[in-house]
Design brief:
The chain is built from 14 helices and 15 strands. The protein is of the alpha+beta class.
Amino acid sequence: MTFLFETIKLGVQNLRLHLLRSILTTSGIVFGIAAVIVMVSIGEGSTRQALLMIESLGATNIIVRSQKPPESGQQQGGQQSGFVQQFGITRADLAVIREHFREGVEAIVPVKAVGGQLLKDDRVQTSQAFGTTPQLRDVANLRVARGRYLSQEDLDRRALVAVIGSEVARALFPFEDPLGDTIRIDEAALTIVGVLEPVGLSGGAGALLIGRDLNLDVHIPLTTAKAKFGDVVIRRQSGSTDAQEVQVSEVYVKVADREQVLIDAARLRRLMDVRHPGLTDIELIVPFELLQAAKNRARTGRVVSAAIAGVSLLVGGIGIMNIMLASVTERTREIGIRRALGATRKHIIWQFLIETSVLSSIGGVIGVGLGIGVSVAMEKGIADLPTVITGWSIVVALVVATLTGLIAGMYPARKAAMQDPIVALRHD
């Protein structure tokens, strides 16, 4: 044990004698480890965010959504066509879905888009209002922050009530409590009875995944939507008018268990394909499929990160080996003196291995600190990226950094130990 401590002490002293060279030597390990930590934290953060987004849609849900077919989005002569575009899920489709999925599903919830604008005093926002049923709260994993959600009584009475998303509350009611206040959807005034908690699907990947920011949604009773707004939605923006007739915008089918999701999704896809050949005006979103795909991408990302880490550390290891080979030449006379005083080849090997291990370990610790600092800074505002610093990445980085030093020091240490003591003593 005393020998080990003395060898470590001697190795550290030798590194301090050439401080600048030691710092430059470890820089490859430092930046390699830091890059690995940052890449892993960004990849893990993005992966977890995607998984949370998908799971928030409901892993046992199948979402059937109306979408504008490609040909309906074309304009004639560069002008907006004047007719009403009809596409998407019909009430007859909804009835067929209910007929074929009477058993094995927990809920079938229709959603109907209504209105062109949301208005509160002089504040105007493009409408994301939807008529639906109280079951949507449980099916879509929605949580009410204040007030209440829609009730069966609201549906029966065709009540003029609304539940608004967190961003709608912030945008239209920045300095007042929206509960009990009114909001206008086109010409209809509705009383706000609830505000939803923020949903982690706003912007970026979440908006692409679901097709919109759920925090901007407004929910009203389905019966009210049908009675007050009908099926035609007219939206005016950028000087153009878009008129669409969609009877049902979305249908959420909640399956009893995950084992049945893919089977029922295939059944539903075939059923809709019969009624809407090619599914040009309908799309199916299966969160469970997205979840599996996201997990597969996460595994691929980890493999890629590991490969990049290997290349980075290989470069750092080559740098250490080059410096230690030069050090062996510089310290040939020192090696000869130590051998003459009784040091064995094993002692010489240990001396050089400890020096390289100390170099790489210090570089690893600094690299981990730098990587954590950059990851935290990126999440806190520099790049506004979701990052997750995992314990395994830190442990692996430190272990690999130390092993890199040992492996890189093997050849220089052996070369030093194999020198002839007499020849070494004669070296200038």
